[in-house]
C-alpha cells in the first residue's frame, strides 16, 4: 500500500513539474533608450546596457561571450524602481563580440534572449515588466496568443491577434512593438508561401533562400528540416546539370555544354561553380577555334637555306592574339646522316686542296667556304595578332642551326700516311649556331592562309668563317596553308 501511495505521489509531483514548465510566463522586455544613448568611458572599448523594472522580482543575466566574473553588474534601487547596469567589453584581440547574446532570467518566466552587437560608447536602456501583473486585459490575452501562434509557425493567426491588440487602450503605449510584429508576420507569410511554391515546382534554390529567411526569426525544427531537404535536392540538381554539361562537352556538343554549365553558375550552385567555370572556359576556347577556323597549318619554304617545313598555330579572328610554331629543314640532312663528302682533290706535292664546287675565301682567316649552307635546321616560336581582316602580323624568336662540309687538314695528313681515300674520310663538318628573331605577316581568308616571314640570324660562333656567316644573316620564308 505504501509503495502504491509513493508511486502516486511521485506521478503527481512529476506532472506538477511538467505543468509548471509548460505554464512559465512570458517576460516583457522593451527598449526605452532616450535619444542616442552614449556611455562616457574615455578611451576604453566598452558599452553599457541598463535594465529597468518596477516589478518585485529580481533579474539575473548570462552572456554568450562573457564569463560571470567578467560581467560588471551594478544595481540601483530607488522607491521600488530597480536599475541593473551592465558594462560590456566591445573589443578584445582575437575575439569577435558581434554575435553576443544576453539571456535574462526571472523565476517563473521563460528565459528572454536579446542580441547585443555593441559598439564603443553605446548606451541602451530596456524596461522589463510582467505583462501578467496587470489585470488580464484583452490586450495581454491577444499578445500572449499572438506570441504562442508565432512560436508554432502559425503566422496568419499570430498576425490576427496582433491586429486585435490595436483596438485595446494599451496599444498606445506599445504601438511600435505591435506594428513591428505585424510587419514581421507579413514577411513570414510571404517567405513561407515562396518556400512552399518554390519547393513544389522544384526551384530548390529559391526554397532554400526563403527557408533561410524564416529561420532567422523562427527556429522551428520542421522549417529547418524542410530547408535541409531543399538544399539536398538543390545540390543533386546542380550535380546533375554539371554532369550533363561535362558529357555534352566530351561529345562535342559545345552549345549544349555551354548552356548547362552556365546554368550551374546562374542557379547559384556554389559547390560546383568553380568546376563549371573552369570547364566553361575550355568550352569557350573550343567554340572560338571552331567558329573562327583559328587552327592553321602552313607549308613553308625558305629559298635562303633551300629548306622546307611547316608552321602550326592558332590565328583567331575574334581574339586579340594567338601563337604559332615553325619547324624547317633542308634536304641535305639525309646526306649528313649517311655521311658527309666533299668533292675535290688534294695535291701532295703542293699540299693544296682543290674543290670541285665553287668556293669563296674568308678575307680575314683565308679559309675557304661554299656559297650556301649545306645543312640547315630552323625552329621558331612566337605570337600573332589580328590587325584587320584578313591581316595578321606575327613575331617570334627561334634557333637556327647551319653546317657546311670542308676538308680537314689533320684528317687528310692522317689519310695520306695510311694511304686511305681522303675524299670522304677526310671531310669534317663545321656547325654554326644562331639566335633568330623573326617578324612577318599572314593573310587568312576563310580556310586559306598565306605567310611571309623575315628572319634575322645572330650567329654565336663565327670562328674562321665571319664572311660566310655575315652572308647568311638575312632569311626569307613564305608559305601557303589551310585553316580549320
What would you note in describing this structure?
With 484 residues, the chain is an alpha+beta fold. It contains twelve helices and 21 strands. The strands form five sheets. An eight-stranded antiparallel β-barrel has the order 9-10-11-16-17-18-19-21. Strand 12 and strand 13 form a beta hairpin. Helix 2 packs antiparallel against helix 3, helix 6 packs antiparallel against helix 7 and helix 6 runs parallel beside helix 8. It is elongated and about 140 Å long. The relative contact order is 0.07. The N terminus is likely disordered.
Amino- and carboxy-terminal Cα gap? 101 Å
What is the share of helical residues?
25-40%
Biggest β-sheet description:
8 strands, antiparallel, barrel
| Strand content bin | 25-35%
Rg? 46 Å
Unreliable parts: 1-22
Note the quaternary state here: single chain
Quickly count the helices.
12
Please state the average pLDDT score: 85
Please state how the strands of the largest beta sheet are arranged side by side. Answer: 9-10-11-16-17-18-19-21
Q: Structural class, from secondary structure content?
A: alpha+beta
Number of strands: 21
Apparent shape? elongated
Amino acid at each position: 500500500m505504501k509503495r502504491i501511495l509513493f508511486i502516486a505521489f511521485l506521478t503527481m509531483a512529476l506532472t506538477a513539474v511538467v505543468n509548471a514548465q509548460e505554464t512559465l510566463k512570458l517576460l516583457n522586455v522593451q527598449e526605452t533608450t532616450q535619444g542616442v544613448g552614449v556611455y562616457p568611458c574615455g578611451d576604453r572599448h566598452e558599452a553599457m546596457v541598463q535594465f529597468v523594472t518596477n516589478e518585485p522580482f529580481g533579474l539575473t543575466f548570462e552572456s554568450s561571450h562573457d564569463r560571470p566574473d567578467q560581467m560588471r553588474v551594478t544595481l540601483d534601487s530607488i522607491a521600488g524602481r530597480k536599475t541593473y547596469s551592465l558594462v560590456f567589453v566591445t573589443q578584445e584581440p582575437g575575439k569577435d563580440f558581434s554575435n553576443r547574446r544576453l539571456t535574462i532570467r526571472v523565476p517563473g518566466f521563460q528565459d528572454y534572449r536579446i542580441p547585443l552587437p555593441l559598439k564603443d560608447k553605446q548606451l541602451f536602456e530596456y524596461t522589463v515588466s510582467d505583462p501578467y501583473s496587470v489585470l488580464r486585459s484583452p490586450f495581454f490575452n491577444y499578445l500572449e496568443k499572438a506570441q504562442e501562434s508565432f512560436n508554432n509557425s502559425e503566422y496568419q493567426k499570430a498576425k490576427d491577434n496582433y491586429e486585435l491588440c490595436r483596438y485595446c487602450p494599451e496599444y498606445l503605449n506599445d504601438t511600435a512593438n505591435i506594428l513591428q510584429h505585424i510587419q514581421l508576420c507579413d514577411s513570414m507569410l510571404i517567405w513561407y508561401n515562396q518556400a512552399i511554391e518554390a519547393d513544389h515546382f522544384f526551384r530548390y534554390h529559391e526554397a532554400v533562400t526563403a527557408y533561410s529567411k524564416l529561420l532567422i526569426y523562427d527556429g522551428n525544427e520542421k522549417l529547418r528540416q524542410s530547408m535541409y531537404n531543399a538544399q539536398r535536392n538543390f545540390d543533386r540538381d546542380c550535380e546533375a546539370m554539371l554532369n550533363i554539361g561535362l558529357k555534352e562537352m566530351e561529345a562535342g556538343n559545345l552549345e549544349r555544354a555551354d548552356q548547362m554549365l552556365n546554368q550551374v553558375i546562374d542557379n547559384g550552385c556554389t559547390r560546383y561553380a568553380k568546376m563549371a567555370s573552369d570547364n566553361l572556359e575550355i568550352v569557350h576556347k573550343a567554340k572560338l577555334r571552331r567558329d573562327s577556323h583559328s587552327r592553321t597549318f602552313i607549308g613553308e619554304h625558305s629559298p635562303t637555306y633551300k629548306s622546307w617545313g611547316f608552321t602550326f598555330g592558332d590565328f583567331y579572328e575574334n581574339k586579340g592574339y594567338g601563337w604559332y610554331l615553325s619547324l624547317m629543314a633542308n634536304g641535305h640532312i639525309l646526306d649528313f646522316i649517311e655521311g658527309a663528302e666533299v668533292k675535290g682533290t688534294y695535291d701532295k706535292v703542293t699540299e693544296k686542296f682543290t674543290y670541285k664546287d665553287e668556293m669563296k675565301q674568308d678575307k680575314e682567316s683565308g679559309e675557304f667556304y661554299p656559297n650556301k649552307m649545306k645543312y640547315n635546321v630552323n625552329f621558331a616560336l612566337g605570337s600573332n595578332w589580328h590587325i584587320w581582316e584578313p591581316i595578321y602580323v606575327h613575331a617570334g624568336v627561334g634557333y637556327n642551326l647551319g653546317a657546311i662540309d670542308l676538308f680537314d687538314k689533320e684528317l687528310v695528313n692522317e689519310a695520306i700516311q695510311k694511304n686511305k681515300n681522303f675524299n670522304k674520310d677526310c671531310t669534317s663538318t663545321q656547325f654554326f649556331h644562331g639566335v633568330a628573331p623573326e617578324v612577318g605577316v599572314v593573310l587568312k581568308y576563310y580556310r586559306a592562309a598565306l605567310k611571309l616571314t623575315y628572319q634575322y640570324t645572330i650567329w654565336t660562333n663565327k670562328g674562321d668563317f665571319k664572311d660566310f656567316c655575315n652572308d647568311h644573316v638575312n632569311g626569307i620564308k613564305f608559305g601557303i596553308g589551310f585553316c580549320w
